[in-house]
């Protein structure tokens, strides 16, 4: 096995040297295209270069195989899983895309680490409540090239203000890095960042109402409507729909669940994904492995399911399976605990749940994002730095943090782990390739 891995590494090393000149030339073209033509031009360039590389590989080179990532283990409070670095497979063909490789090679280690984080504007700028993007935002972005910014209703005072805030932030980021930053909200019929009296946007029907109608087209139209106005505001990702089966009578998600029937919930989930996809806004299923059976509020650091893994697969996993088959680009993993399923840590920190069940078992090849680290219950005894490393080692691609000090602790821990060799730079790049490929694919 070690010999095979060495052979793969040697092949990749030789391939990278051969493409070095082309990569640097491509970087120049990439930067020009980003400034003049935006990401549409980049996408066309990537496609052309990929076809040329594929032809070259077919005529003389053996097929490139992504080797497993390297890394060590970290200590976590008992009882825990064995958190060795999880080998994750990068999107097919990404290793041979000169434009993607040039982009990654042009980033510092710090920028690669920052690119894995989704933060609130408050966590980024260290203010109590952010409602505009000014010099403080530019300075913070210049220091931290975060991968995404998550906005809540606290950032909204009116429609014009919020649109300007989003637009200014995205312009600043593109000027600094010549690539986009992803903007996130959570927008559902029963949970909204934008819809409401502050903006005049009317909320669509709740998930429970959509599911109760028995017509999946209603779900498709509702989420098409959501995606349409999110796009007008400059939002890239909606943390919705909630792929939850309401198995608890007093479920904390309430009418955010489509149904108490797994098949109906699955059908509505798939329809919602299809409707959102028509608008170009990225949908993100929340929150794996399914929170519809919990009565305690997970967002307040509580909640554990007593279902076994087989029970979860037979019920809670069903809407996620449907959503993945419908092509959802992103899935959020919950901070809930699942001791009866053999998961003794929050699910989003579990290699079993993230890599084995979601990535391998359900065949999800897209971007996996954590719920906010702040949702980890204090009883777990895991600090922000350890949690961030555990999430990445478990197989997550993006890490959500809502508070400035927590972001600093999480970022510092991962950066130190990379510099020490505990987490490989290649592991960071695997996640970044998924994130950037998702952004390119929607254009």
Question: Would you give an account of this structure?
Answer:
- Helices cover 48% and strands 7% of the residues.
- With 443 residues, it is α/β, with parallel strands linked by helices.
- The chain has a single domain, classed as Glycoside hydrolase, family 3, N-terminal domain (TIM Barrel), CATH 3.20.20.
- Strands 7-6-5-4-3-2-1-8 form an eight-stranded parallel β-sheet.
- Helix 2 packs across helix 4.
- The longest helix is centred in the first third of the chain and has 21 residues.
- 51% of the residues are buried.
- The N terminus is likely disordered.
Cα gyration radius (Å): 21 Å
Strand order of the largest sheet: 7-6-5-4-3-2-1-8
Assembly form of the protein: single chain
Distance between the termini: 40 Å
What's the CATH class, please?
Alpha Beta
pLDDT under 50 segments (min length 5)?
Answer: 1-9, 38-84
The biggest beta sheet is recorded as: 8 strands, parallel
Binned strand content: 5-15%
Q: What is the H-and-E element order? A: HHHHHEHHEHEHHEHEHHEHEHEHH
Question: How many runs of DSSP E, i.e. beta strands?
Answer: 8
Structural class: alpha/beta
* Tally of distinct domains: 1
Mean pLDDT: 86
CATH topology: TIM Barrel
Number of H/I helices? 17
Morphology:
globular
CATH superfamily: Glycoside hydrolase, family 3, N-terminal domain
Which architecture name does CATH use? Alpha-Beta Barrel
Helix content: 40-55%
């Amino acid at each position: 096995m070690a010999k095979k891995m060495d052979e793969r590494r040697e092949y990749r090393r030789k391939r990278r040297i051969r493409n070095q000149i082309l990569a640097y030339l491509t970087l120049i073209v990439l930067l020009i295209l980003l400034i003049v033509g935006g990401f549409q031009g980049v996408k066309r360039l990537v496609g052309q270069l990929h076809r040329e590389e594929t032809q070259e590989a077919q005529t003389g080179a053996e097929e490139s195989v992504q080797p497993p990532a390297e890394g060590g283990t970290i200590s976590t409070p008992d009882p825990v899983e064995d958190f060795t670095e999880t080998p994750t497979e990068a999107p097919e063909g990404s290793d041979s895309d000169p434009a993607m490789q040039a982009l990654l090679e042009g980033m510092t280690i710090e920028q690669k680490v920052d690119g894995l984080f989704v933060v609130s504007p408050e966590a980024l700028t260290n203010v109590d409540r952010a409602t505009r993007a000014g010099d403080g935002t530019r300075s913070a972005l210049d220091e931290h090239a975060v991968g995404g910014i998550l906005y809540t209703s606290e950032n909204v005072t009116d429609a014009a203000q919020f649109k300007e805030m989003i637009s200014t932030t995205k312009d600043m980021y593109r000027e600094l890095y010549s690539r986009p930053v992803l903007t996130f909200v959570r927008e559902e019929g029963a949970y909204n960042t934008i819809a409401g009296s502050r903006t005049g946007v009317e909320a669509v029907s709740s998930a429970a109402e959509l599911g109760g109608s028995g017509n999946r087209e209603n779900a498709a139209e509702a989420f098409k409507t959501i995606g349409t106005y999110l796009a007008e505001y400059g939002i890239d990702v909606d943390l919705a729909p909630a792929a939850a089966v309401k198995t608890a009578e007093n479920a904390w998600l309430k009418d955010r669940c489509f149904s108490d029937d797994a098949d109906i919930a699955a059908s509505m989930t798939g329809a919602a994904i299809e409707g959102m996809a028509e608008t170009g806004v990225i949908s993100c299923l929340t929150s794996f492995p399914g929170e519809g059976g919990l009565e305690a509020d997970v967002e307040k650091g509580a909640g554990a399911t007593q279902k076994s893994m087989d029970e979860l697969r037979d019920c809670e996993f069903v809407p996620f399976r449907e959503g993945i088959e419908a092509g959802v680009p992103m899935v959020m993993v919950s901070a809930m605990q699942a001791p009866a399923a053999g998961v003794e840590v929050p699910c989003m920190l579990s290699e079993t749940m993230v890599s084995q069940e979601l990535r391998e078992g359900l065949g999800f090849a897209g971007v996996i994002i954590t719920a906010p680290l702040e949702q980890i219950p204090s009883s777990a005894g895991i600090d922000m730095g350890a949690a961030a490393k555990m999430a990445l080692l478990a197989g997550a691609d993006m890490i959500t943090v809502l508070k400035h000090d927590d972001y600093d602790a999480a970022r510092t821990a991962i950066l130190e782990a990379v510099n020490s060799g505990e987490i490989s730079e290649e592991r960071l790049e695997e996640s970044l390739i998924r994130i950037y490929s998702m952004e390119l694919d929607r254009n």
